[in-house]
Amino acid sequence: MYYRGAQAAIVVYDITNTDTFTRAKNWVKELQRQASPNIVIALAGNKADLANKRAVDFQEAQTYADDNSLLFMETSAKTAMNVNEIFMLPKNEPQGAAGTGGRARGGVDLQEAAPQSRSSPCCGGGN
């Protein structure tokens, strides 16, 4: 129910905790099984600022992401490293999009489904 109709999902794990990486893999599996076949899934290894306490190897996570057609990036919420960048997810195109591997360059418009005008009142009420 959390991801019904979602165009994109970011699954986050803590690079200092292998259990969170295992749980992230379970979420990816769930999304691949239950979500839209065109969903864009990104895997984010958070707490990159704590690289000296790393428990999940960068290359292991990158290989997992590659094997599962996920976007992958390490981030740090503390220092804001790659936080904005992780939200610039490419759109998945219908199967057979020539030369793009199924991914286009444009970003997913997270506002696309519910455009609202600032000049109209919210929820049908007057001012």
CATH C-level label: Alpha Beta
What name does the CATH topology carry?
Answer: Rossmann fold
Strand arrangement within the widest β-sheet reads 1-2-3
What count of structural domains? 1
Unreliable segments of 5+ consecutive residues: 94-127
User: What would you give as the CATH superfamily?
Assistant: P-loop containing nucleotide triphosphate hydrolases
Give the overall pLDDT as a whole number: 79
Shape: globular
Instruction: State the separation between the terminal residues, measured CA to CA.
Output: 35 Å
CATH architecture: 3-Layer(aba) Sandwich
- The radius of gyration over CA amounts to 17 Å
- Quaternary state, please? single chain
Helix content: 10-25%
For the largest beta-sheet, the strand count, sense and barrel status come to: 3 strands, parallel
Pfam families: Ras
GO molecular function: GTP binding; GTPase activity
InterPro entries: P-loop_NTPase, Small_GTPase
Family: Belongs to the small GTPase superfamily. Rab family.
Overall description:
It is a single chain. This protein is an alpha/beta fold and 127 residues long. The chain is 24% helix and 20% strand. It has a 3-stranded parallel sheet with strand order 1-2-3, covered by helices on one side. The longest helix is centred in the first third of the chain and has 17 residues, at 18-34.
Q: What are the main properties of this structure?
A:
Rossmann fold; alpha/beta; 127 residues; three-stranded parallel beta sheet; single chain; two-stranded antiparallel ribbon; disordered C terminus; Small_GTPase
How are the elements arranged and paired?
Layout (H helix, E strand, L loop, with lengths): L7 E7 L3 H17 L5 E7 L11 H10 L3 E4 L8 H4 L3 E3 L10 E5 L20
Parallel strand pairs: 1-2, 2-3
Antiparallel strand pairs: 4-5
InterPro entries: P-loop_NTPase, Small_GTPase
GO molecular function: GTP binding; GTPase activity
Protein name: RAB5C, member RAS onco family
